Amino acid sequence: MENSNYLYIKFSTKIDDIYFYPEPVLKYWKEMKMADTKYGKYFLKEPWGLPNKANPDPNAPVYIGIGQEVPVKDWDEPMTQVLRPIYKPMIMIPNGHRHNCPEILYFIGGNPMNFKDFGAEVELLMGEGKDVEKHIITSTTWVYVPRNLFHCPVNFKRVDRPIMFGHIMFTPTYASSGAANPGSK
Predict the structure, then answer these.
(1) How far apart, in whole angstroms, are the C-alpha atoms of residue 74 and residue 5?
(2) From 2.60.120.10, 3.20.20.480, 3.30.310.50, 2.120.10.30, which CATH number describes the 40-177 domain?
(3) H or E element: which one contains 153?
(4) 3-26 burial by CB neighbour count: b if 16+ within 10 A, else e?
(5) Exposed (0-12), middle (13-18) or buried (19+): which is 52, by Cβ within 10 Å?
(6) Choice between 181 and 97, residue whose per-residue pLDDT is larger
(7) Does 70 score more than 70 pLDDT?
(8) Residue 127 CB: number of other CB atoms within 10 A?
(9) Which pLDDT band holds residue 146 (cuts at 50, 70, 90)?
C-alpha cells in the first residue's frame, strides 16, 4: 500500500502491526546504502534466523540469528547469536551437548517495557552423569556455560506470556562450536 507520503511495510505474517515511514525517510534510506560507506560493512540489516530443523513449527515467528551457518562477512570477530520469542511450551534443544567455546544463554521477559515480566518456567540441565544439575528459571536470567560443559535440554515447561530466549558464542558458526554432533564427548 503506497501513496505519495507513506509506504506500508509489514514485517511478518505473524505480526499485524503497521509501520508507516514518511517519504523523505524512505528517500534517504534508498540513497544511503550502508555497504557503500566506510563503516557500512559493520551494519547487518535484517539478520533473520534460520528455521530449527529439530523443532519445525510453521507458525513460528521470525527471529534474529547471525553466524548460524556462515560467518558474518567483514566482521573481524567470530560470533554466533540467536534471539527468538518463546510463545508456547516446548523442548527446544532435546539433546545434551557441549561446545569448544563458552556460551551465554539468556532468558528475558517478553515485555519490552519491563524485562522483569517473565511469564514462564524453564528447566535447564547442566553437567552429566552423577554431576548433572537441574536448574529452574522463573525470572530474567543469563547463564554462562563454560567451554566443554555438557548442557541441555532446554525445556520451556510453562509459558503464560511470551519470553525471549537466545545465545551468544564467539565462534564463526554454531556448527564450528562442536555442537554439530549433540551428545558427543
Answers:
(1) 36
(2) 2.60.120.10
(3) strand 151-159
(4) eeeeeeeeeeeeeeeeeeeeeeee
(5) middle
(6) 97
(7) yes
(8) 13
(9) very high
Burial zone of 37 (CB within 10 Å; 0-12 exposed, 13-18 middle, 19+ buried): exposed
pLDDT band at 52 (very low <50, low <70, confident <90, very high): low
Amino acid letter for position 28: Y
> At 46, phi and psi to the nearest 5?
50, 60
Adjacent-strand bridge partners of 21: 7
Greater pLDDT, 95 or 159: 159
Mean pLDDT, to the nearest integer, of 55-81?
77
Cβ–Cβ under 8 Å, residues 88 and 162? no
| Distance separating alpha carbons of residues 24 and 32, to the nearest angstrom | 12
Give me the mean pLDDT over the 101-112 stretch. 95
So what's the pLDDT on residue 80?
86
The pLDDT of residue 134 is 97
The helix, strand and coil proportions of the chain, stated in percent and rounded to the nearest 5, come to: 10, 35, 55
Q: From CA 184, how far away is CA 177, in angstroms rounded?
A: 12
Domain with CATH 2.60.120.10 in the chain: 40-177
